[in-house]
Amino acid sequence: MFTIQLAGHKFTIDNQYPYVQRLCGDYLTDGLGVPISVTARELAFEGQPSSYRWPEGYLESLAVYRKICRILRREDILLFHCSALALDGRAFLFTGPSGVGKSTHTRLWRQRFGNRIVTINDDKPLLSFRPHAITVYGTPWAGKEGLQTNTMAQVAGVVILHQGTKNILRPVTCQEAFPILLQQTYRENSADEMRKTMDLVAQLAQLPVFSLTCTISQDAVSLAYQALTGGKR
Question: In terms of CATH architecture, what is 77-229?
């Protein structure tokens, strides 16, 4: 049993497998939080449907995060699938369908800006919604490469990525952005939970949102950087 802190909230995890505690090593804290444990049925659910037998410790970690996300939504905090970077303290979210190249694109940003960049999370960060700000928080659930930092930053913009042979960037309206951003959240089937999620995503869509069709190149980084920051250094 151990306690972690995510997005300012504590959770005490009664784990069955050591993998979960190793995964959460950067987020360990003292004291007790909301209790989290996983049943055999919940463990089995995480492994379906799949012909591959995933390690049970990995499946437990998924079930733990699912439960945490359900609890955090009550506090206006959502899981959002993206690669989240902080440049000079301001966060930018790069999202899109699985396999579109989010991690590849943000790796180019790290190469370009060096220690000015902090990778907050490369796959499943948390977004906290408050009246005048949206804040992104690092989590241990950070994709295959495990790129994450136990930190937070205010979100300044969102880029929806698409693969292409040319670099084309354009601003996206709230109405156009909303369904795309909603698709990248963790959602429950109940009507009340869906309404809550939709309300929060509507706030996210009001930030500067851009669609970037791009190649794997520093030119694509330059185009997004100019749009997101106005070219400010």
Answer: 3-Layer(aba) Sandwich (3.40)
